[in-house]
Amino acid sequence: MKQSYAWFIIVLTTLALSFASCSSNVVYSRFSPMKSGEWHQDSVVNFDYFIADKEASYQMIVYVRHTERYPYQNMWLFVDNAGQTDTIEFYLADDRGRWLGDRHHGMIEMPVLMEDAKLFPDTGVYRLSVRQGMRDSLLRGITDIGVEVIRNGQE
Question: How many beta carbons lie within 10 A of that of residue 9, not counting itself?
Answer without folding.
Answer: 10
